[in-house]
Amino acid sequence: MPLSKDEVRHVAMLARLGLEPGEEDFYAGQLSGILEHIDRLQQLDTEDIPPTAQVVEIASRLREDEPRPCLSQEEALANAPAAVDGFFRVPSIQEET
Amino acid sequence: MADWETVIGMEVHVQPKTRSKMFCGCSVADVNEPPNTHVCEICLGLPGTLPAINRAAVEACIKTALALRCEIPRHTKFDRKNYMYPDLPKGYQISQYDLPMSVNGLLEVDGRKVRIRRVHLEEDTGKLVHAGDKLHKAWESYVDLNRAGVPLMEIVSEPDLRSADEARDYAIELRTVLRAIGASEADMEKGQLRAEPNVSIRRAGTDALGVKTELKNINSFRALHRAILYEVDRQQKLLETGGTVVQETRGWSEDEERTFSQRSKEFAEDYRYFPEPDLPPLELDRAWIEELRAALPELPAIRRARLVSQHGLTAGQAAIISADRDLADLYETAVMQGAPPLPTANWIVNEVAPTGKLLDPAYLAELMTMLQAKDITRDQAREAYFESVETGRTPAEIVAEHGYRQVSDESELRVIAEAVIDANPKAVADYRNGKTQALNALLNELRKKAPQANPKVARELLLKLLG
Amino acid sequence: MTDDLTSLTIQDATRLLRLGSISSADLVTAHVERIERVDPRVKAYLRLTQDLWETQADEADRKIRRGDAGPLAGIPIAIKDVLCVRGVETTAGSQILRGFRPPYTGTAVSRLFEAGAVMLGVTNCDEFAMGSSTENSGYFPTHNPWDLERVPGGSSGGSAAAVASGEAIIALGTDTGGSIRQPAALCGVVGMKPTYGRVSRYGLIAFASSLDQIGPFARSVDDAALTLSLMAGYDPLDSTSSDRAAMEVLNNYGAGVKGMRLGVPREYYDVAGIEPGVKAAIDAALFILQKQGAEIVDVSLPHTDYGLAAYYIIAPAECSSNLARFDGVRYGLSEVDAPNITAEYSRTRRKGFGTEVRRRVMLGTYALSSGYYDAYYLKAQKVRTLIKRDFDAAFEKCDAVVSATSPTVAFPIGSKTQDPLSMYLCDVLTLGGNLAGLPGISVPCGTSDGLPVGLQVLGPQWGENVVFRVARAYEEASEMKAGVATPGPSPRRGEG
Ligand SMILES: [Mg+2]
Ligand SMILES: [Zn+2]
């Protein structure tokens, strides 16, 4: 199933990928090619087949509720592009409209 | 004027009582700790890190589910809810989607059965602080991730509530249950319990649900009540003037006493839920669940009913006592050890509940027996109570040491009463001129001089002497 | 002398170290000199970690003298750029993580450090391990030491090339769809992908969480087995790690193949696009194994044709979520002075992610988005079940499955970059092992047109020892040791 420019724009928006106008055709073409291959999955009847999310059976274990040391504030912010008074700084959270 | 019916479903987020976060070992921060001091590589969402489930959070969720009479399915799993926001370090929240920890419960609130759709576990987000006074004027924001990854139980009800009163009472009852079973401290001011009502209205007598709005930023039971009242009124006016309700999230402004549009569902995120690949599906140990079920204390509603029917308490007394497991246990143990039920209930409501000071039940029984027998006055009993709490000595010892006793014999009090009347000519004159409250001043003087006086006898004596 | 020290196996090196003939510092110096000489052409390393190798070599020498050295004491190791090492710039081959220094070391790496390994540096890879040629690195492509105009494979191309060119004795890589086995094959070294859950993923910058595994590159099966045994085992920090005993990966693995049944899946044997030279090398390998007493049996993996399609839904879906954290807030590249948060996200991610990453994030976002989930993601998960069942059925008939690792030998740089699907097809023989969670190894099995060919052995889940056993028997009988390439200033092609 080919992907339209609109759909490319929509997924790029959901994923916050910052697609520039000219790139939509490029990705629409490439993704459509891949999806064309992927569409062979629809040939298989999987009605009664359970999905596999995790392929190896591993019993889940629970962690005991014991605190372990945190990072210092300095360590926590060490990689931050912008930090102010112990906080991570970000631009206004107002959405683009 | 058409009749409208209000329909409310509640989504309540509760922070279970744990020492560490949901998926990492960071200690849970108190409010007002310095920003980003309760964080590690995991809750910061640093590349390469993975979640590990906190047993205590699971336990609290199971206990809550059991208390709310939910079913606990054999299989449960965690899912990722994907959206990007600066308070969400991984770009997704680990939550539960189609196989929650528990489903199909029930909470009874004043006789109304409120169905519980589900109780599931997830993680909290961090906190954003905005520069500038209003969200829409902020030029930048600051992120504190101390709360990111704190465990949350999400308790979702069916739309079974029909008024702001009911919604508030539901939230209060929920808090009572959570505290009684020890699952959460559920302090709304500390953000440990956050209620988000879904509010819609419809024509009375119709079944279809109206368009709902979801209310956020509510941080007290009072705000919950007022926000719903405002919202119902807003929707009603809108519909009666030919408008339509838009499905959206609305914030409650405490200062302006109104709700305001936050995010319209038209621009709703597509959360792209899928199974969290970093956590194997959880198969809860049935024996563990049964152990937790067996250890569950009597629920407040049941205890409340029992205190009324078996002990003859008033509904008000029963509600206050059963709302707190410590108070209720103190009351019942003391009664079992011989304390008279009604005076003891009265005592707990007036003396213990406001102070939170708990006495050994056997001592309370001893003290209540003395009070009941009119051996001591209420003031003396109060003194003895708190001294016993402080020192650990028995009330009998304390009463004996202080020589506490109650005098109900008029002849023993007559000399003192006459002295009080002689020493307070002004009060006596006031009283005789019709100022009846002057009697209280005289009574207080008398009790100062004779604390052992039976207040009722003393009052009658004064009245007699004043003629 | 120094070149002699850069073609050793762990066992050779350990013997010299324990005898006192060389010190760990000598071994490091030899490797650093080698790197200085060949890496300007191979470009296996993104960064070298001098501080680390100095302290670690020192420590190793001290422990060797004291007699309490670990099994990897003094062994130079190269680490793929997706494995976090405390204080060492770790970028997943991406510009978006430029400058990121993790405050912690991942479990697998720290276990090898505890065993005495000495880290030389961080190796190049495709950005976020997405690729089969290391051309998608956000920094520069790595070259195949056997022919500098060709790719080393990927995504762990830097690690494979480092071991193949004498720039490290062992290296760590990660394998999501073949990213260890395929570059091992193309570079002529041993590369092993363990059972999903065998090695903790804690510290591995995730590409596709349900498929990723960390594994070793080495010059011998013994070295790979030893390295794996040291990093395997339960880790409370990875809930998907198994509590099975780490040492079971070595059980009986030297016993030879006599009496073993080795399955040859016809869909793999005759896979579309397989080069005749590769097929000939595999035939020769099967003959050798048969001569050693193995029984070669036909098996079928009927859903092979759907593997790539299922893989290219599941892996991108998981990656679209895993890569959401690269938002410019807490680390890495950031356009933090954008007018609002949405613009910051979009500009940061536009600048920081390369084309292949963006392509996969879009594909995965699409597959998970409302209205498409059932048709794509859920469908792919069901097909994953079918592929797992294919392998279950095959392992009823045989002890291990053998095939070529890659249908082709190393291909020229730039030859597949314009057509993503042709690049994806590089992994057609390896990604089934990831979808089914199986252990798999690639061992050198001769050459085709002068370029290395790899033999892949896949075992049932938790059957690492079976995989090692077959690989070791083949290695011994074929005398097909991993060679060390000395890349000349001009391409080697035509010499071999
Ligand atoms: Mg929630
Ligand atoms: Zn943490």
Task: Describe the protein.
The complex is a heterotrimer of chains A (97), B (467) and C (496). Chain A has helices at 5-14, 23-38, 73-77; strands at residues 83-84, 87-91. Chain A is mainly α and 97 residues long. In chain A, 32% of the residues lie in helices and 7% in strands. Chain A is built from three helices and two strands; from the N terminus they run αααββ. Chain A has a domain at 5-42: Histone, subunit A, CATH 1.10.20. Chain A is flat. Chain B has 467 residues and is α+β, with helices and mostly antiparallel strands. Chain B has three domains: 4-290, no CATH class; 298-402, no CATH class; 410-466, Arc Repressor Mutant, subunit A. Chain B has helices at 55-67, 164-180, 221-240, 286-295, 300-311, 315-322, 325-336, 341-355, 361-372, 378-391, 395-402, 410-423, 425-432, 438-449, 455-466, and strands at residues 4-14, 75-76, 79-82, 92-95, 102-109, 112-123, 127-131, 140-144, 151-157, 193-203, 213-216, 248-253, 258-264, 274-275, 282-283. In chain B, α12 packs across α15 (455-466). The termini of chain B are far apart. The mean pLDDT of chain B is 92. Chain C has one domain: Alpha-Beta Complex (Amidase signature (AS) enzymes). Helix content of chain C is 39%, strand content 13%. Chain C has an eleven-stranded mixed sheet, sandwiched between helices. The model of chain C is unreliable at 490-496 (pLDDT under 50). Chains in contact: A-B, A-C, B-C. Chains A and C meet through α1, α2 and β2 of A and α10, α11, α12, α13 and α14 of C. β2 of chain A pairs antiparallel with β8 of chain B, so a sheet runs across the interface. The structure holds magnesium ion (MG) and zinc ion. The site of zinc ion (ZN) has 8 residues of chain B, from loops.
